[in-house]
From TrEMBL:
One GO CC annotation: Golgi apparatus
Coiled-coil stretches noted in the UniProt entry, renumbered to this chain: 162-347, 428-523, 596-697, 747-795, 839-908, 932-994
Classification via Pfam families: GRIP (PF01465)
Name of the protein described by the UniProt record: GRIP domain-containing protein
Domain GRIP: 1000-1049
PANTHER family for this protein: GOLGIN (PTHR19327), GOLGIN SUBFAMILY A MEMBER 4 (PTHR19327:SF0)
Source organism per UniProt: Leptidea sinapis
Keyword Electron transport in record: no
PROSITE patterns: GRIP
Length: 1063
C-alpha cells in the first residue's frame, strides 16, 4: 500500500510539472490546444478516479484492520480463558495429589501398625484384634479386595500374614513410585503450559504491532485523501484558467498562426520529455499495471458515454436545424401573407372581432384548465377517499357477514334452547304426573302402612318439588338468554341501517363528482368546436380573398360610380340585416345548447333517481320479507309460549286440587303445600306479565309493518309520478329535437343567403385604405411575435440542454448508488453464508459434546474410583461449552449488525425512491412551459430509466427480504443451540455433583460429607459455588422454592463479585 501511494504521488508530481509546462505554451496554436484539451480530460478523469481508488484501498485496509482486531481480540480472550482453565485444572490436580498423598501416608501408617501388632501377636492377641477392628473402622479408603485379604490373614497363621503384608508394602511402594512419576509429568505439563503462555504473549505483541502498522497506513491514506482534495482544487483552478484562456483564444487566433512553427519545435521537445517520462514510468509499470488497466476500462466507458452524449448533441442539433427550417418556412408563409394583405383589407374587421372572441375564449380556456386542474386534484383526493371508504365498506361487509353468521348461529342456538325448553316442560309435566301418582300411592299406602313409610314418601315428594323448582329456574335463565339474543339482533339491524345510509351518501357524492366531470368534458368539447369554427372562418376568409381578386377587375371595368353608390347603400342595409341575422342565429344556438344541456342533465338525473328508487324499493322489499319472517317467528314463539302457559295453568290447577285433597288428608304436609302454591302463583303472575310484554312487542311490530306498507305505497305512487314525468320529458325532448331540425334548416338557408351576400360584398373596394393600415399594424405585431418566439426557442433549448445534463448526472449517480448497494448486499449474503457454515460447525461441536457427555455419564456408573479424571473431563467440557456460548453471542451480534445494515439499505432505497420522482417532476414542470415536442421523448426516456431503477430497487428489496429470512433462520438456530447448551450445562452440573461427591458419599457419613462441602463452599474460590449450593440443598433436603431462592442469591453474589473483578 505504501509503495503504491508513493508511486501515485510521484506520478502526480510528474503530471503537475508537465501540466505547468503545457500552460506556458497554451497560446501556441489550435492543434496544440486540442492536444492540451485531450491531455487535460484524461488527467481530470484520472484525478476523479484516483480518490475513488484510494477510498476503496482505505476501505479495504479498514476492513482488514477490523478483521485482524476482531481476530486478535478473540484469540486473546480464548487464550485468557485457556490460561484460567489451565490454572484451575493445575490447582485441582495439586489438591487431588495432596489428598492422595495424605491417603497413602495414612495407609502406610496403618500397615506399619499392623506389622508391629502381628510381631507382638503371641503376647497380645486380644489387643491386636481390637486394634485391627479400630483401624478398619477408621480407614475406609482400602478396597473391598484388601478387606477380604485382611480377614483371611487374621484367620491364617502369622507366617502367611507377614508374607501378605510384605507384598502389600511392595505394592504400596510401587504406587508411590507411580504417583511420583505422575507428579513429574504434571510438573512437565505445567512447564509446557508456561512456555505456551509466553508464546501466546509474543503472538499478542506481534498482533498489536500489526495493528499499529495498519493504523499508520490508515493515517497515510487520510493524508493521501487530503492531497487528492488539494489536487482537485488545483484542477478546478486550472479549469477556470482554461475557460479564461478559451475566451481569449478567439481573439488571438490571428497571432497564433505565426507561432505555430515554434510550437511544433516545442512539441518535439515535449515529446522527447514524454519519452523520458515513459522510460521512467516503465520502471513503475509492474506496480501500476493493474491501476492502468482499470483506468483504461474506465476511460473506454467514459469515451462511450461521451459518444452517446455527442450523439444526443447531434440529435439536438438536427432538431435545432429542423426548427430553423420550420422558422424559415413560417417566414416564407409570412411573406406570402404580406403579398395577400391587399385582398384582406375588407375582412380585417371580422378578423379583429374574431380575435377578441378568441382572446376571450382563450381566457375562458385558461380558467377552465385551472378548474380542470382543481377538479383533477379534488378527483384524486376523492378517489383516495373513495378507495378508503371502499376498504372500510369491505371490512364492514366482512363484519356484517360475520354478524349474519353469528345471527344464524344464535338463531340455531335459540331453536335449540326452545327445543330444550319444550323438553324440560315435558319433563316437568312427566314429573308432575309422577307426583300425582306418588300422591295417589301415598293415599293408598296410608291406609295400610305405618307413619315411617309416609315420611319417606313425603321426602320423595319434596325432592321432586325441588327438582321442579330448579328446572323452572333454568327455564327463566333460558328466557333471559333469548331476550338478550333478540336485543343483539335488533342492534345488528340498526348497525346495518346506518351502514346502508353511509353507502347511499357515498354513492350520491360519487354521482355529483361524475356529473361535474361530465360538465367539464362538455366544456372541452365546446372549446374544440369553437376552435373548428375559427378554422372554418379563416378558410372562408381565404376563399373570399381569392374571389375578391377575381371579381375585382370585372367590377372596375363594368360598374359605374352610380352603381357603386347604390351598392354601398345596399351593402349597408345588407350588413345590418346580416348582423341582426347573426345575432339571432347566435342567440338561438345558445338557447338550444342550454336547453339541450338542461334536458340531458334532467334526463340523467331522472335515470339516476329511478335507479335509486328501484334500489330502495328492492331494499324495502327485502326488509319487509325479513320483518315478515321475524313476525312469523314471533307469532310461532307466542303460540308456543301460550300453549305452554295453558298447559302449565291446567297442570297447576290439577296440582292445586290434588294438593288441597292432600292437605285434608295429610295435616303434616299442609305448610309445605301452601308455600308451593304461593310460589306457583308468583310464577303464574310472572308468566302472565311476560305474556303481556310479548303481546305489546307484537303490537309494536304490527304497527311497524303497517308503516312500512304505507311507505311502500307512497313510494310506488312517487315512482309512477316520476315515470309520468319521464314520459312528458321525453315528449318535450322529441319536440325540441324537431324544433332544432327546423332551426338547422333555417340556418342552412341563412348560410346560403350569406354566401350570396358575400359574393356581392367582395365587389366592394371602399374599405381598402382602412384595412391597409390595420394590415401594417398586424405586420409589426407578427414581427414582434417572431422575435419573441425566437427568444423563447433559444431559452427553451438552453434549458433543455441544462436539464438533460442534470438528469444524466442524477441518473449516473443513482446507478452508482445502486451498484454500491448491490455490492453491499452481495457482501452481506457472503457474510450470512459464512455465518451459516459457522453455525453448522457449532452445531456439530455441540453434538460431539452431547456424545461425550453421554459417554461420561455411562462410564461414571462403572468407574467410581476414576472420579478425578472425570471431573477434569467435565471441566474441559464446560470450557468448550463456554467457548460455544461466546461464539453464539458473536454470531448474534453479527446478525444484529447485518439486520441494521439491511435496514439502512432499505432507508437509502426509499429515500432514493422519494427523491427521484420529485426531481423528475420538477424538471417536467420547468420544461412544460416550452411547447417543444422533443421534451416528451426525453420525459419518456426518463420514465423508462425510472422504471428500470424501480425494478432494480424491487430486486434489491427481494434480496434484502431473503437475507432477513436467512438471518431469522440463523437466529432460530442460535436460540435452539442456546437451549441445547443450557440443557448440556444442567446435565454437566448434575454429572459433576454425582461424580465429584460419589466417592465421599460412599465412604463418609452424611455429617462428614456436609462438613466437607461446607468447608469447600466457604473457603473455595467461588467458581463452583452454584454446584456446591445445589449439593447442599440436596443434602439438607430443601424444597424447590427454597433451592430456587438459594440459587438466585448465589447468582446475584457471583454477579457482584464479577463486577468488582474478584472472579
Amino acid at each position: 500500500m505504501h509503495n503504491e501511494n508513493n508511486v501515485n504521488s510521484i506520478n502526480l508530481g510528474i503530471i503537475s510539472i508537465f501540466y505547468r509546462k503545457k500552460l506556458s505554451h497554451l497560446a501556441v496554436g489550435s492543434p496544440f490546444n486540442k492536444m492540451f484539451k485531450k491531455f487535460k480530460d484524461k488527467l481530470a478523469e484520472e484525478v476523479k478516479s484516483s480518490p475513488q481508488r484510494i477510498q476503496q484501498f482505505a476501505q479495504a485496509a479498514q476492513n482488514v484492520l477490523v478483521e485482524t482486531q476482531d481476530k486478535a481480540l478473540r484469540r486473546i480472550s480464548e487464550l485468557k480463558e485457556q490460561c484460567s482453565l489451565e490454572q484451575s485444572a493445575k490447582a485441582h490436580l495439586e489438591k487431588a495429589l495432596r489428598v492422595e498423598l495424605d491417603e497413602k501416608s495414612m495407609k502406610i501408617d496403618a500397615l506399619s501398625t499392623q506389622i508391629s501388632l502381628i510381631q507382638n501377636k503371641n503376647i497380645h492377641e486380644k489387643d491386636f484384634q481390637n486394634s485391627n477392628e479400630n483401624i478398619n473402622n477408621q480407614v475406609q479408603l482400602i478396597t473391598l479386595n484388601d478387606e477380604h485379604e485382611s480377614e483371611e490373614n487374621l484367620q491364617s497363621p502369622t507366617a502367611t500374614e507377614t508374607v501378605v503384608l510384605n507384598n502389600k508394602i511392595e505394592k504400596l511402594e510401587q504406587l508411590l513410585s507411580k504417583y511420583k512419576e505422575s507428579l513429574k509429568l504434571s510438573k512437565e505439563k505445567n512447564s509446557q503450559l508456561s512456555t505456551d503462555i509466553q508464546k501466546l504473549a509474543l503472538e499478542i505483541e506481534s498482533v498489536s504491532k500489526e495493528n499499529d502498522k495498519l493504523k499508520s497506513e490508515c493515517e497515510r491514506v487520510s493524508e493521501d485523501k487530503k492531497l487528492i482534495k488539494e489536487l482537485l482544487e488545483k484542477n478546478e483552478v486550472l479549469e477556470n484558467t482554461n475557460k479564461a484562456l478559451e475566451f481569449s483564444k478567439n481573439k488571438e487566433i490571428a497571432i497564433t498562426a505565426s507561432s505555430l512553427k515554434i510550437a511544433e519545435q516545442e512539441i518535439s521537445s515535449l515529446q522527447k520529455n514524454i519519452e523520458d517520462l515513459k522510460k521512467r514510468e516503465e520502471e513503475y509499470a509492474i506496480s501500476l499495471a493493474e491501476n492502468k488497466l482499470s483506468i483504461h476500462k474506465e476511460l473506454e466507458d467514459k469515451e462511450a458515454e461521451i459518444k452517446s452524449l455527442k450523439e444526443s448533441v447531434s440529435i439536438s442539433q438536427t432538431e435545432h436545424n429542423e426548427l430553423n427550417k420550420i422558422i424559415n418556412e413560417s417566414k416564407n408563409k409570412i411573406v406570402e401573407l404580406e403579398n395577400e394583405r391587399s385582398a384582406m383589407l375588407k375582412d380585417l374587421t371580422e378578423v379583429n372581432s374574431l380575435r377578441t372572441k378568441i382572446h376571450e375564449i382563450s381566457l375562458d380556456n385558461n380558467v377552465l384548465l385551472e378548474q380542470i386542474k382543481t377538479f383533477d386534484n379534488n378527483k384524486g383526493r376523492l378517489d383516495e377517499e373513495y378507495k378508503c371508504l371502499e376498504l372500510q365498506l369491505k371490512q364492514e361487509t366482512a363484519e356484517k357477514l360475520a354478524m349474519i353468521d353469528r345471527n344464524v348461529y344464535l338463531e340455531s342456538r335459540n331453536t335449540q334452547l326452545t327445543e330444550e325448553n319444550i323438553k324440560k316442560s315435558t319433563h316437568i309435566n312427566s314429573l308432575e304426573a309422577q307426583l300425582l301418582e306418588l300422591n295417589a300411592k301415598i293415599e293408598s299406602i296410608q291406609a295400610h302402612k305405618s307413619d315411617g313409610e309416609t315420611a319417606e314418601l313425603k321426602i320423595k315428594c319434596n325432592n321432586l318439588e325441588s327438582e321442579i323448582q330448579e328446572e323452572r329456574v333454568e327455564l327463566v335463565k333460558l328466557q333471559t338468554e333469548i331476550e338478550k339474543l333478540l336485543y343483539h339482533h335488533e342492534t345488528l339491524q340498526n348497525q346495518n341501517l346506518e351502514l346502508n345510509i353511509a353507502l347511499d351518501l357515498l354513492k350520491t357524492e360519487n354521482d355529483t363528482l361524475q356529473q361535474k366531470l361530465s360538465k367539464m368534458n362538455e366544456m372541452n368539447t365546446c372549446f374544440n368546436e369553437c376552435k373548428l369554427k375559427l378554422t372554418e372562418i379563416r378558410k372562408m376568409i381565404n376563399i373570399a380573398s381569392k374571389d375578391s381578386k377575381s371579381l375585382r377587375d370585372q367590377i372596375l371595368s363594368e360598374l359605374l360610380p352610380k352603381v357603386r353608390e347604390a351598392i354601398i347603400k345596399q351593402n349597408s342595409l345588407i350588413q345590418e340585416e346580416l348582423e341582426t341575422s347573426k345575432a339571432e342565429f347566435h342567440d338561438r344556438n345558445n338557447t338550444l345548447n342550454v336547453t339541450n344541456s338542461e334536458l340531458k342533465f334532467k334526463h340523467d338525473q331522472f335515470i339516476k333517481d329511478m335507479e335509486l328508487l328501484e334500489e330502495e324499493n328492492k331494499r324495502l322489499k327485502v326488509n319487509l320479507q325479513e320483518k315478515d319472517s321475524d313476525y312469523s317467528k314471533l307469532l310461532e314463539m307466542k303460540n308456543l309460549i301460550s300453549a305452554e302457559q295453558e298447559q302449565r295453568i291446567g297442570n297447576l290447577d290439577k296440582n292445586c286440587e290434588k294438593l288441597s285433597e292432600d292437605n285434608k288428608k295429610l295435616l303434616e304436609v299442609v305448610g309445605l303445600s301452601e308455600t308451593n302454591i304461593n310460589n306457583l302463583k308468583k310464577e303464574l303472575n310472572m308468566i302472565q306479565s311476560k305474556n303481556n310484554s310479548n303481546l305489546e312487542q307484537l303490537t309494536i311490530l304490527m304497527d311497524e309493518k303497517r308503516q312500512l306498507l304505507e311507505k311502500t305505497i307512497v313510494q310506488d305512487k312517487s315512482i309512477k309520478d316520476i315515470l309520468n314525468d319521464l314520459k312528458s320529458s321525453k315528449a318535450d325532448y322529441n319536440n325540441l329535437l324537431q324544433s332544432s331540425t327546423e332551426i338547422k334548416n333555417s340556418n342552412l338557408k341563412l348560410e346560403r343567403e350569406w354566401n350570396e351576400l358575400s359574393n356581392q360584398y367582395n365587389n366592394l373596394e371602399i374599405e381598402r385604405s382602412t384595412l391597409a393600415a390595420e394590415i401594417e399594424k398586424l405586420k409589426e405585431e407578427l414581427i414582434t411575435e417572431k422575435k419573441s418566439l425566437k427568444l423563447l426557442l433559444d431559452k427553451s433549448l438552453q434549458s433543455q440542454t441544462t436539464q438533460t445534463d442534470k438528469n444524466d448526472n442524477i441518473l449516473t449517480e443513482k446507478i452508482c448508488k445502486c451498484d454500491e448497494l448491490k455490492g453491499d448486499n452481495k457482501r452481506l449474503c457472503s457474510d450470512i453464508d459464512g455465518l451459516q457454515i459457522y453455525l453448522s460447525k457449532i452445531s456439530k461441536e455441540n453434538s460431539d459434546l452431547n456424545d461425550k457427555l453421554r459417554e461420561i455419564i455411562a462410564t461414571s456408573d462403572n468407574l467410581p474410583d476414576k472420579s478425578d479424571n472425570f471431573i477434569n473431563d467435565m471441566d474441559i467440557l464446560k470450557t468448550e461449552i463456554r467457548v460455544g456460548k461466546d461464539k453464539i453471542d458473536d454470531l448474534l451480534r453479527e446478525n444484529s449488525l447485518l439486520i441494521e445494515e439491511n435496514l439502512e439499505l432499505k432507508d437509502q432505497i426509499q429515500s432514493q425512491l422519494n427523491t427521484e420522482p420529485s426531481k423528475v417532476m420538477k424538471s417536467i414542470q420547468l420544461t412544460s412551459n416550452t411547447p417543444i415536442i422533443n421534451m416528451n421523448e426525453k420525459y419518456d426516456k426518463l420514465l423508462q430509466r425510472k422504471q428500470d431503477l424501480e425494478s432494480r430497487i424491487t430486486e434489491l428489496e427481494q434480496m434484502n427480504n431473503s437475507l432477513n429470512k436467512n438471518v431469522d433462520h440463523n437466529q432460530e438456530k442460535c436460540e435452539k443451540l442456546k437451549t441445547s447448551n443450557e440443557k448440556l450445562q444442567r446435565k454437566l452440573d448434575e454429572a459433576l455433583v454425582s461424580l465429584r461427591h460419589l466417592h465421599s458419599l460412599e465412604e463418609n457419613t452424611e455429617l462428614e460429607y456436609l462438613r466437607n462441602i461446607l468447608y469447600e463452599y466457604l473457603t473455595g474460590a467461588g467458581t463452583h459455588s452454584l454446584t456446591l449450593a445445589k449439593v447442599l440443598s440436596a443434602v439438607v433436603k430443601f424444597d424447590n422454592k427454597q433451592t430456587e431462592q438459594v440459587l438466585q442469591k448465589e447468582k446475584e453474589r457471583q454477579g457482584l463479585l464479577r463486577q468488582l473483578g474478584l472472579l
